[in-house]
């Protein structure tokens, strides 16, 4: 739950610890670039007033992870639709 509002949120987590980075090399670097690209695109879409968009609340580093916090959309994964 988001502390400020009490609303349920969804959190996407990308693990970026040093051991994983060494194990995957360039591929891990690409995952971080993809994550940053996703954040940038979501922000641009939100700023343009796009409708029917899962709203991003915040994106932040947490220890050895990157977290993307969005509004929760009940009903399961898009893959199940």
Structure notes:
The chain has helices spanning 18-24, 26-47; strands spanning 9-15, 56-62, 65-71. It is of the alpha+beta class. The model has no long low-confidence stretch (mean pLDDT 78).
N-C termini distance: 25 Å
Count, helices: 2
SSE series: EHHEE
Low-confidence stretches are none
- Portion of residues in helices? 25-40%
Shape: globular
Q: What Rg do the Cα atoms give?
A: 14 Å
How would a crystallographer describe the biggest sheet?
3 strands, antiparallel
What is this structure, in a nutshell?
This protein is α+β, with helices and mostly antiparallel strands and 81 residues long. The protein has two helices and three strands, in the order E-H-H-E-E. Helices cover 36% and strands 26% of the residues.
Summarize this structure as a short list of keywords or feature phrases.
alpha+beta; 3 strands; globular; 81 residues; 3-stranded antiparallel sheet; single chain; 2 helices
């Amino acid at each position: 739950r988001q502390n400020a509002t009490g609303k349920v949120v969804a959190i996407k987590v990308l693990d970026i610890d040093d051991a994983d980075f060494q194990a995957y090399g360039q591929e891990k670097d690409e995952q971080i670039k993809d994550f940053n690209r996703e954040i940038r695109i979501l922000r641009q879409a939100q700023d343009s007033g796009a409708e029917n968009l899962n709203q991003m609340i915040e994106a932040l580093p947490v220890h050895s992870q990157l977290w993307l916090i969005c509004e929760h959309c009940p009903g399961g994964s898009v893959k199940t639709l």
